[in-house]
């Protein structure tokens, strides 16, 4: 039986299928057209930028770091260019250890280089380029270049390195730079977008001193370079460039020759000294001994040197001028006397009879002079440094009144100097003791604890910076200035200096006649008192006060004998002074640790510093050698004019040359890396001797 097909039905089904297929094709074309319009019109700008980014790369141009100079333009921190062998771990074809072993066959890689690289690797990301060797010689660069095909992910780069041409000289105040660590990266991420952008590509940052506190002024402005890259990510050609702007020049207020003189006079002894201009607050010298070489830290200090510095009993990394706190000893007495005048507890003429001790609560507080000083008024109490006078005064005043009066002079508070890390010191009071201790019996203030405060002992602990500021306030007739280490910042583009403002912190609420009494007694100390020998024959009149601070307590009835004590248990030698007496231009406070009497070990250093600053003379080599071991008070030998003293010092000059194959002066002028500037002429000021 034959079945007939329904041709019309089949055609209808076929036409329906063709129609559906046409609709589907049309929809696909519409979708494609829509996508094309979306990509070519709507997202044109975005996609074009992505394509351009695939073809090009934006590379940050890190600026040259600014120079740091002393007040006379002598360069203390500069830059030089050298080649570095750098490894990018994420691009290596072999293991990291194998790559470094193979590299060691081409260039010298010491164990310390490996340790430093490992430390950097722990602090960095795998795609970052890290130096495995720095300061390559031309021969090493050539050897690697010939075999570079063997080492994908390893490159030779030219980088700028920080150099401190005078090594250990003034290292605590200049500071140093080092690679940015994770903690510092976290801090940078909290900065504004503009500041963050300025630190892209920056591997180094200030870690200490002026390098740290003036980081943003020294850093400069990061530039950018647009380069065309190959499919492999290598640069093919430069398309555009916006040059980096070098950092500004920071000119410090210190005189590096004065700093060098003082550090040499300390010799191998430990201690601190701060010298100020009392009228402006400018710091003229900021000494902490012993010092360290900041060049060790620039590329990451190796473990041997770090261990030697960190574990040294002399603590060379401690900035004693900024963070070291000491009992002020007898240097505290003039300030106590001023407080007595202001509170009416004493008059200048009021005298006591000193038998050589002061009995209180069954305890005998001894004077340094056996048998006592006899009848002692305020002038003699300072000139002869009578302890008994101040035992009695402290007992009459009480701890809280002492605290109130000394706070006005700045004791127990940071001075606000323009570098970080300043210690507060400790100015005791009953409130302080209640808050400092947990046990009730420890929180109570005992009357006997007040007695030793009068002679700068007990809980008293201050920095040399605080003592220098307090004396500067007295020398400046009660005007208190904020100390600062930077004189001005010179703009690298305009060469215009921005001078640090001389900031007045206030006027001491003390009567001028009372200040005059204290200043007269301080002059007497250097004319007929404990430091008269050190200032014998000086071409100017000065005021000062010696001090000796106990390190350990001497038992009742026992006598202090330095020769029978461990060297580090001996008394500290302190001294503070200003000159010229009638118009002070320099004030200093200093301590030589465990050296004994301030008159013998500290005052002679101050005398030579004043001679340099006021009379423009340098001590003889014989005199410097004797002072550095505490064997000379009055200058010996023939002093030299400052201009005749060789600069730069030969020991540091040779080290600087060895470290600086290519000097990169990023300052306002193309000056040499080390400027041998002669000191400015200083008028010799000889003030008339003040009468008693």
From TrEMBL:
Pfam families from the UniProt entry: PBP_dimer, Transpeptidase
Domain Penicillin-binding protein dimerisation: 62-238
Gene3D superfamilies documented for this protein: DD-peptidase/beta-lactamase superfamily, Penicillin-binding protein 2a (Domain 2), Penicillin-binding protein 2a, domain 3
One MF term in the entry's GO annotations: peptidoglycan L,D-transpeptidase activity
Catalytic activity from the UniProt record: Preferential cleavage: (Ac)2-L-Lys-D-Ala-|-D-Ala. Also transpeptidation of peptidyl-alanyl moieties that are N-acyl substituents of D-alanine
Highest taxon of source: Bacteria
Gene Ontology CC terms: plasma membrane
Active-site residues from the entry: 330
Subcellular location: Cell inner membrane; Cell membrane; Membrane
Cofactor(s) the protein requires to work: Zn(2+)
Function, in words: Catalyzes cross-linking of the peptidoglycan cell wall.
Family: Belongs to the transpeptidase family. MrdA subfamily.
NCBIfam families: pbp2_mrdA (TIGR03423)
Protein name: Peptidoglycan D,D-transpeptidase MrdA
Source organism: Caenimonas aquaedulcis
